[in-house]
Design goal:
Elements: H1 2-7, H2 10-33, H3 56-62, E1 105-109, E2 113-115, E3 122-128, E4 133-141, E5 146-154, E6 157-164, E7 172-182
Antiparallel strand pairs: 1-7, 2-7, 3-6, 4-7, 5-6
């Protein structure tokens, strides 16, 4: 209370009263000076009244009855595809299908190769699957101190790249084998 009383001076009270009388009195004078229906088209500026400023009742008197429906226009171009919808619920488990053909895997032995006994000697061995089958793996037998630098399918063949990693007294005969899947 002391806070308000400290700012309540004669000047503040008089200026506040003058402001209230000026604003309130000016409105009252303007309302009294203009009679009922005294503002017409001559007093309004161009485009001063917009549809947003009209009441619903005024708008209703300005609109007539609806006209006949026109002919249907041509179909427009299709719109852009929408985004993917959410994932649906998990479906029911289907019936068990008929058994499929069994896989037929067989092996084919390739021609043996001889790898010299000197360290660093190299040789390539092949084993080939017959037509109507696909190579799926391979192996070699009969080696000592030999590294397989590569073992991979190459068309119908399975190729082995062999390298001697240590010197041995004699050479090795290495036999390649390929495993084939019947198509």
């Amino acid at each position: 209370m002391k806070r308000i009383a400290g700012k309540l001076t004669y000047a503040n009270v008089v200026s506040t009263l003058c402001l209230i009388l000026l604003v309130g009195g000016g409105t009252a004078v303007a309302a009294g000076a203009l009679g009922k229906e005294s503002v017409g088209t001559k007093q309004l500026k161009k485009a001063a009244v917009t549809p947003d400023k009209l009441s619903q009742a005024s708008k209703a008197t300005l609109t007539g009855p609806a006209g006949p429906i026109g002919a249907v226009g041509p179909t427009g171009a299709p719109g852009a595809a929408g985004s993917e919808g959410p994932r649906g619920p998990k479906g029911e488990i289907g019936e068990k299908g008929a058994p499929g053909d069994p896989l037929e895997v067989f092996s084919v032995t390739g021609s043996p190769v001889t790898l010299g006994g000197t360290e660093g000697s190299t040789e390539t061995a092949f084993a080939a699957c017959p037509a109507g089958s696909t190579p799926i793996s391979g192996s070699v037998t009969g080696f000592t101190s030999v590294a397989i630098g590569g073992s991979f399918a190459s068309g119908q063949d399975w190729e082995f790249r062999l390298r001697r990693v240590a010197t041995i007294p004699n050479s090795n005969t290495i036999t390649p084998t390929v495993y084939c899947l019947k198509n």
